[in-house]
Specification:
about 300 residues; alpha+beta; nine-stranded mixed sheet; four-stranded antiparallel sheet; globular
């Protein structure tokens, strides 16, 4: 499906390069992808084609058209999967950190969907052709339990449970600093950041309601191991809420910016966030199903350093 974004340049954005501006304003595009779209005539300034290096002016109207990927880009690939559960209706896997969930600009291969297509042969259809079977998502650098549907009815019933907040979700997370309370409920709304469209932020006005319960598992000198229970499912919710209470996720370069790791004197390769458990009613059998993913090696290694 073709998507279009309309941007109006504000005074403080004037003077930026067109490709840099578009990459910052459209989350799914990198600078190189924006440049290619400009070169191919998919990005117009006041209805006219422009150069990637063109400087935008206040009041310019930018139209960004992202063409649909071709069917040939959605291919089955023999990528190993850590399968936690599988039957005729659904499959649950322990997604490793670094794996993108579905093909998109910049990541057409090597994704979870590519692997599932090879393993399952059949996944539920979706309104978005690049996301067959995908009912919910995890960030690229978040590991853990993710469920995919094999047929449309299962997909629809699982999506209903997610929307009704009937699915129990438990994450494990390492953060900088130790919370003042052993149990903390964070209720800040979450909205797209006004200046950086690739980020979200907590806000008292506007945005969408979000709630995360943070429970202390283990405290260290300058860090903590937490259980995170998101009651809603907003983009980057746990990462944003942890940063909002000044306990950023270790390794989170977007919301933590490496400050906590620098203070601790440790190196963390990615955000220490793991989808540990999902519990829900099986859409076909009607029986409770609980899925648990063990902590990945890199998470355990950082834990060991903190304990040491």
């Amino acid at each position: 499906m073709e998507t279009t974004h309309h941007l109006v340049i504000e005074r403080e954005q004037a003077g930026e390069r067109l490709d840099v501006l578009v990459a910052g304003a459209v989350p799914e595009l990198s600078r190189s992808q924006a440049k290619r779209l400009i070169d191919d005539g998919f990005i117009l300034v006041d209805g006219e084609e422009a150069k990637p290096a063109a400087k935008v002016r206040a009041g310019d109207e930018i139209e960004v058209t992202i063409p649909p990927p071709t069917a040939a880009e959605l291919v089955a690939e023999p990528i190993p999967l850590d399968v936690l559960f599988e039957d005729d209706w659904l499959i649950a896997v322990n997604k490793p950190p670094g794996m993108v969930v579905h093909p998109a600009a910049g990541n057409w291969t090597g994704t979870l969907v590519n692997a599932l297509l090879h393993h399952c042969r059949r996944l539920s259809e979706s309104d978005e052709p690049m996301r067959p079977g995908i009912v919910h998502r995890l960030d690229k650098d978040t590991s853990g339990v993710i469920v995919a549907a094999k047929d449309t009815v299962t997909h629809w019933k699982l999506a209903e449970q997610f929307a009704a907040r009937e699915i129990e979700k438990e994450y494990r997370v390492l953060v900088g600093g130790v919370p003042a309370q052993a149990r903390l409920i964070v209720t800040a709304n979450i909205a797209r950041h006004p200046r950086d469209r690739k980020r979200m932020h907590a806000t008292d006005t506007g945005g969408r309601k979000a709630e995360t319960v943070l429970e202390l598992i283990e405290a260290f000198d300058g860090a903590a191991y937490l259980r995170a229970l998101p009651k809603t499912g907003r983009t980057h919710q746990i990462r944003v809420h942890c940063a909002h209470v000044h306990r950023p996720v270790l390794g989170d370069t977007v919301y933590g910016r490496g400050k906590a790791e620098n203070r601790l004197g440790i190196k963390v390769a990615r955000q220490m966030l793991h989808a540990h458990r999902l519990a829900f009613i099986h859409p076909a059998t009607g029986r409770p199903l609980e899925l648990t993913a063990p902590l990945p090696v890199d998470f355990e290694e950082v834990l060991a350093v903190l304990r040491g």
